[in-house]
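Whether sequence alone determines local backbone shape is best considered at the level of individual chains. Part of our work consisted of pairing the sequence of a single chain with a tokenised description of its backbone. This step matters because it turns folding into a mapping between discrete strings. For completeness, the protein is quoted in full, as a sequence line and a line of structure tokens:

_____
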Amino acid sequence: MAVLLVVRLLTGRSLATPWPLLAVYAAELGNEIMDYFGHGRVMPDTLSDVLNTVFWPTVLFIGLRVRRAREARPSRRHDALR
């Protein structure tokens, strides 16, 4: 989450854009590559590390994208009241 927020602040982009999320994915990939070279093999907890790291940033991204799409779409109820 820290990477997500730092990239958001540095770039000025919304969390609903893919760039902060891609930075989280890239940081996690870099972390797992360093773990691989440090241990000389893929560790048994690698998959759970990746999933735990990217889960909430991904959920946040999807939620914000859905909200943005709903706000951009005209409301049928609003149109019916006119």
